[in-house]
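User: tokens in, sequence out, please.
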């Protein structure tokens, strides 16, 4: 900040490039203070500064929104709003049909599928300029995105409206979360890409796209039979040991032959019997059998 000879000062940062020139007067309220400390009135300067910051933030938001719209491509069931300045009859709301088209006054059927909002806006402007309106000012924006879908072991499966920034975790929250039978480590997305369908394992923070199908499978089970207190089937977990599985089943009975515990497991389509120790790992769909002691 640079003080001038007449008792005013200029900001030293380059806001003058914006055409802002500020001269803030100050007055020496207490002449007896050391070095003539000044009390300055800078309310106007602060207001203008905050206005400039707000304008910068608004500009950044507008750019980010435009970039998101640029990345999104229109498709069936998107609802779009078209506004033509000064032409109320041409300002309409349309739902993209299954063929990726809409109908528009004067122009009839228009293809929008696979285009970004900006692409379609530019094309529509060109069509209207070619013989209908001298200098059309066209704005296109999305009123409602098409759905994505969540199926499987969630509490409320179904279709949900896509929103910018939608993640797998947010999508599952819309479906009211996992059921108690869900395999949370095996969530997958089926997606149409380039005319083919791809299914991939996804993390909860991955982004969702319109028409995605999020599938939550049921967790595999294991079975505990024989001399345990609560024989039956239980949800499999990675890292599960024989000991933990038996604990889930209430533990051994007093008649159990613990050292002769076995696992029935399907390997290459054949069921085999395996002698196991309590710290051995269990596989999905294993059957743990605890025999009875002979005496």
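Assistant: Sequence out:
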């Amino acid at each position: 900040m640079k003080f001038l000879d007449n008792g005013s000062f200029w900001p030293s940062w380059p806001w003058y490039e914006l055409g802002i020139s500020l001269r803030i007067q100050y007055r020496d309220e207490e002449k007896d203070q050391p070095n003539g400390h000044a009390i300055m009135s800078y309310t106007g300067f602060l207001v203008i500064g905050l206005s400039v910051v707000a304008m910068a933030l608004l500009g950044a938001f507008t750019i980010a929104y435009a970039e998101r719209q640029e990345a999104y491509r229109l498709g069936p069931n998107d609802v779009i709003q078209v506004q033509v300045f000064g032409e109320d009859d041409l300002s309409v709301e349309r739902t993209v049909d299954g063929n990726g088209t809409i109908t528009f006054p004067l122009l009839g059927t228009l293809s929008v599928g696979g285009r970004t909002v900006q692409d379609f806006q530019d094309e529509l402007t060109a069509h209207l300029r070619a013989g209908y309106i001298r200098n059309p000012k066209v704005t296109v924006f999305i009123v409602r995105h098409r759905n994505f879908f969540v199926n499987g072991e969630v509490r409320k499966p179904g279709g949900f409206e896509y929103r910018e920034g939608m993640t797998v975790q947010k999508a599952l929250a819309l479906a009211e979360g996992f059921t108690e039978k869900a395999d949370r480590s095996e969530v997958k997305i089926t997606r149409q890409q380039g005319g083919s369908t791809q299914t991939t394992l996804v993390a909860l923070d991955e982004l969702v796209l319109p028409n995605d199908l999020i599938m939550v499978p049921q967790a595999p089970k294991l079975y505990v039979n024989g001399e345990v207190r609560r024989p039956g089937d239980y949800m499999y977990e990675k890292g599960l040991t024989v000991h933990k599985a038996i604990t889930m089943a209430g533990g051994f009975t007093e008649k159990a032959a613990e050292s002769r515990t076995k696992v029935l497991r399907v390997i290459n389509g054949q069921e085999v019997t395996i002698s196991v120790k309590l710290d051995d790992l269990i596989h999905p769909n294993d059957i743990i059998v605890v025999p009875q002691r002979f005496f």
